[in-house]
Specification:
By secondary structure, the protein is of the alpha/beta class. About 40% of the residues lie in helices and about 15% in strands. It has eight helices and seven strands. The chain has helices at about 15-25, 40-50, 65-75, 105-130, 155-175, 200, 205-215, 230-235, and strands spanning about 5-10, 30-35, 55, 80-85, 135-140, 180-190, 245-250. It has a seven-stranded parallel beta sheet with strand order 3-2-1-4-5-6-7, with helices on both faces. About 50% of the residues are buried.
């Protein structure tokens, strides 16, 4: 079991990719604390974790949320070995979009949702790891759009900027804390079927585009469990000599033109 005795906090772990990872971590022997904004999702997630995890309701952009989740993990499970930050999302409905249409409110909302929340959780994790001694692993959720834009269907320039910033932030933090045995890496998916992606996954034109842009496995939209193996690796001791890396799990997006 790759994660036997590991104690992991997942910020944004009650739905989609975060919940799928939580269930995979438990199957590999971990105990988890998952954090989500929706109390109903928290309750449902905790039921699925079947005694091997706890769910905590909280906003990832609140400076108190990550420290509380980590403290809960330490108190209930007796330690803290890894943080997986999945929380984030589109700011399209709040004013993100092409630069000439992007509003300042949309920019600030998207920054808070995708970058500030991640900084806060990473900061809390680093502080906890240093206090404990012995290091730990942080995995941050990026996006293929942080390095491989798709102008026709995914023109949200604030979101792309924040996901690109996740890479720079992660590399800088990884370099600084490597001597503390704190590993920090990025997992960057393409289009995955999650609640956030409904606009795209319910649009026949975008679905047809995705089949050619993500040609692996017959050409399809990704599923949350497509990322589970990579997440397990980064939370495990098998990644003990890996830090500051970006693993793109994208079905071929990065190397395909995408035609419809």
């Amino acid at each position: 079991m790759w994660l036997e005795s590991k104690k992991i906090v997942i910020v944004g772990g009650t739905t989609g990719m975060g919940l799928s990872a939580a269930l995979a971590f438990v199957r590999e022997g971990a105990q988890v604390v998952v954090v989500g904004r929706n109390p109903d999702s928290c309750n449902e997630a905790e039921k699925q974790l079947d005694g091997n995890g706890l769910a905590m309701s909280g906003d990832a952009s609140d400076p108190q949320t990550a420290p509380k989740a980590i403290a809960l993990c330490q108190q209930i499970f007796g330690g803290f070995d890894g943080l997986y930050h999945v929380a984030g999302g589109s700011g399209r409905r709040s004013g993100d979009g092409p630069l000439h249409e992007l509003t300042l409110d949309g920019w600030n909302f998207t920054a808070n949702l995708n970058l500030t929340s991640l900084m806060l959780s990473n900061q809390a994790a680093v502080r906890a790891f240093r206090a404990q001694g012995g290091g730990g692993s942080i995995l941050n959720m990026g996006s293929v759009l942080g390095s491989r834009p798709s102008p026709a269907y995914f023109a949200t320039h604030a979101y792309a900027a924040m996901k690109s910033a996740v890479i720079g932030f992660t590399k800088s933090v990884a370099a600084y804390y490597a001597s503390d045995n704190i590993r920090v890496n990025v997992l960057a998916p393409a289009l995955v079927e999650t609640p956030m992606a409904q606009r795209a996954t319910q649009d026949d034109t975008i679905v047809a585009f995705a089949k050619t842009k993500q040609p692996l496995d017959g050409g399809r939209i990704g599923q949350p469990d497509d990322l589970d193996g990579a997440a397990v690796y980064f939370m495990s001791d098998y990644s003990a000599f890996t830090t500051g890396q970006i693993l793109t799990v994208d079905g071929g997006w990065s190397v395909s033109e995408g035609q419809i």
